[in-house]
Design brief:
By secondary structure, this protein is an alpha/beta fold. Helix content is about 40%, strand content about 15%. The strands form 7 sheets. A 6-stranded mixed β-sheet has the order 2-3-1-4-5-6, with helices on both faces. Atypical mitochondrial nucleoside-triphosphatase (NTPase) involved in mitochondrial trafficking. Probably involved in control of anterograde transport of mitochondria and their subcellular distribution. Can hydrolyze GTP, ATP and UTP. This is Mitochondrial Rho GTPase. InterPro entries: EF-hand-dom_pair, EF_Hand_1_Ca_BS, EF_hand_assoc_1, EF_hand_assoc_2, EF_hand_dom, Miro, Miro-EF-hand_domain, MIRO_dom.
């Protein structure tokens, strides 16, 4: 809503423009009236709408035409004053004033007009019979008021209607000629109805109506008031109420009735609560609330946001198959002005056998959007009405901004749940197949993907030591000389080469040496198409020797040419390679011997990573834990990244192993005696 209102009074000389202003201010008729009143400002706390109001007078005797034109351009509403006992002043309304104002204003944004019949105390008849045809002729005329500056009749009402014409204009809502709401208003109210229909059954039940009432007007409706509203609809239309709930047609009828009865402020209150401006467009402030994101931080959805998105999914999954069919997806996005997801989304996230986005895929796409383009995510949540349904100040409340990655490393822990892996490799090396295999698609299913529906992203969940994480894979185009900062900024890097192509590995080796050898970003070599015959690579070092020299993991064999869905083990390894994910578990978990219930705490002499003594050194078959793979993986990583010739390390490890073995055996014997 506007922060202030500017009202301009125009009309023929001697019709009482200045008297109206002075009577409003002093609450009495002035004995002496100047040629023109000075501009006055009515404070917000005095006006009914709580908006500061500026009232400007015009005098032909004191002002030039140019000054009049300037005032017309600045005015939010113009009151054309005529004298009810002066026919000439009434004729001038249509012959002079309305054409003059329309010539000075844009046709698409005409300023609202109020016709003011002053000096009603001098006549016993009304001028309405003469004025009504004029009102019907000009749609920009909001209303007509007859008043008397001398008797103070309808003075306050005059300026209230003028203020109301600005703050709650009829023009954008209603077409008087057609006697129905305009299409843009119907479209906005339809979106509001769909958002308020929490169970998506096509009607607003009593609970939904009460929630709508509280949301818009801060107070619920009494049960009898609810019935009265529905009875009004029942009396006027047959399909306005269904199953004792209000249908969309009934909802639109009620607002049409409000507007026709001059209560369009009710409709405007609803529209503005749901983010609309005076042109019935969602405001930029509503769609894009302020969200500060410091450098080297990422954005994720928080728990409340996922709960909201889950409710939206459940609301539109009519057949309860945990997937959204094309019709269900279209219904979900009816509250959007455009279709936000293209066919590439179906190749970015998990789908069912029919190619429909599953529940997991649906949440994954939202997670991807939040991570890559948080402003677009805010926009989408705005269309869905997140801040309204969850009663938040804005949809920015749905976003968690993670802390700087450097702090995560210093603290040796992180709360991040989304990790990015950039996938590099020469053309034809199998990068796209690697992405699609993460979504459970083998070669047969991948061949069905159209080129124009291809996606360079893939995102899904992977469980890391019992915790669910999102792994985001991004295929980087193989332009070696022009890798941007975005191509290099990630948590882990995959270097993919085709074992059957002798020139494929060279790209990976050069990319690693140029961009990642001196960085702290973990890297993994992927030996793709491992179902084919491996050939010697035309590079000075074999892939295995290259990895040994640069202390990398050995190349990981990978193929998606299988009858079933490809294995996801390699993607779990990728996630555990990320230093932040490793550090989340390093110092907080223990291994448990299920036979004796003796706990052995994980430890490491370097204080940076960790290995599990009971799993790797004692080799006890009785010791099992969900962290076992973690311990083994970190030990392997420690071995590859530490100087393996350092005998001091092995000496410390051996001593530590011996001590813990003796202590463990002693505690085991003690527990047996207690039993």
């Amino acid at each position: 809503m506007r922060k202030d209102v500017r009202i301009l009074l125009v009309g023929e000389p001697k019709v009482g423009k200045t008297s109206l202003i002075m009577s409003l201010v002093s609450e009495e008729f002035p004995d002496e009236v100047p040629l023109r009143a000075e501009e006055i400002t009515i404070p917000a706390d005095v006006t009914p709408e709580r908006v500061p109001t500026h009232i400007v007078d015009y005098s032909e005797a004191e002002q030039s035409d140019e000054q009049l034109y300037q005032e017309i351009s600045k005015a939010n509403v113009i009151c054309i004053v005529y004298s009810v006992n002066n026919k000439k002043s009434i004729e001038k309304v249509t012959s002079h004033w309305i054409p003059l104002i329309n010539d000075r204003t844009d046709k698409d944004s005409r300023v609202p007009l109020i016709l003011v019949g002053n000096k009603s105390d001098l006549v016993e008849h009304s001028s309405m019979e003469t004025i009504l045809p004029i009102m019907n002729q000009y749609s920009e005329i909001e209303t007509c008021v007859e008043c008397s500056a001398k008797n103070l009749k309808n003075i306050s009402e005059l300026f209230y209607y003028a203020q109301k014409a600005v703050l709650h204009p009829t023009g954008p809502l209603y077409c008087p000629e057609e006697k129905e709401m305009k299409p843009s208003c119907i479209k906005a109210l339809t979106r509001i109805f769909k958002i308020s229909d929490l169970d998506n059954d096509g009607v607003l039940n009593d609970n939904e109506l009460n929630f709508f009432q509280r949301t818009c007007f801060n107070m619920p409706l009494a049960p009898q008031a609810l019935e009265d509203v529905k009875n009004v609809v029942r009396r006027n239309m047959t399909d306005g109420v269904k199953d004792n709930g209000l249908t969309l047609k009934g909802f639109l009828f009620l607002h049409t009735l409000f507007i026709q009865r001059g209560r369009h402020e009710t409709t405007w209150t609803v529209l503005r609560r749901f983010g609309y401006d005076d042109d019935l467009e969602l405001t930029q402030e509503y769609l894009f609330p302020l969200l500060k994101i410091p450098p080297d931080c990422t954005t994720e959805l928080n728990h409340n946001a996922y709960l909201f998105l889950q409710s939206v999914f459940d609301k539109h999954d009519k057949d309860r198959d945990c997937a959204l069919s094309p019709d269900e997806l279209k219904d979900l996005f009816k509250v959007f002005p455009y279709m936000p997801w293209g066919p590439d989304v179906n190749n970015t996230v998990c789908t069912n056998e029919q190619g429909w986005i599953t529940y997991q895929g649906y949440l994954s796409q939202w997670t991807l959007t939040t991570y890559l383009d948080v402003q677009r995510c805010l926009e989408y949540l705005g269309y869905l009405g997140y801040s309204i349904i969850h009663e938040q100040e804005s949809q920015a409340a749905a976003i968690t901004v993670t802390r700087n990655k450097r702090i995560d490393l210093q603290k040796k822990q992180t709360q991040r749940s989304v990790f990015r892996c950039n996938v590099l490799g020469a053309r034809g090396s199998g990068k796209s197949g690697f992405l699609q295999a993460f979504l459970g698609r083998n070669v047969t299913r991948q061949k069905k993907i159209r080129d124009d529906h291809k996606s360079y992203y893939a995102i899904s969940t992977t469980y890391v030591y019992g915790q669910e994480k999102y792994l985001l894979l991004h295929e980087v185009l193989p332009v070696f000389e022009f890798l941007s900062e975005a191509d290099l900024a990630c948590d882990v890097v995959c270097l993919v080469y085709d074992i059957s192509n002798p020139r494929s590995f060279e790209y990976c080796a050069k990319a690693y040496k140029k961009y990642f050898m001196d960085s702290k970003t973990p890297c993994m070599m992927i030996a793709a198409k491992s179902d084919l015959h491996e050939v010697r690579q035309h590079y000075s070092l074999s892939p295995l020797d290259f990895c040994r020299r640069h202390k990398l993991h050995p190349p990981q064999q990978f193929t998606c040419n299988s009858a079933d869905a490809p294995s996801k083990d390699i993607y779990t390894k990728l996630t555990t390679m990320d230093e932040h994910v490793t550090l989340i578990c390093c110092f907080s978990y223990v291994c448990v011997c299920l036979h004796s219930h003796v706990k052995f705490r994980c430890m490491c002499s370097c204080n940076r990573c960790t290995f599990c003594i009971c799993q790797n050194l004692l080799n006890c078959e009785l010791l099992r834990t969900v962290r076992a793979k973690f311990c083994s993986a970190v030990l392997n990583r420690h071995m590859t990244q530490t100087d393996l010739k350092n005998s001091t390390f092995w000496l410390r490890a051996s001593v530590g192993a011996t001590v813990f073995a003796v202590l463990g055996f002693a505690m085991y014997k003690a527990l047996l005696k207690q039993r």
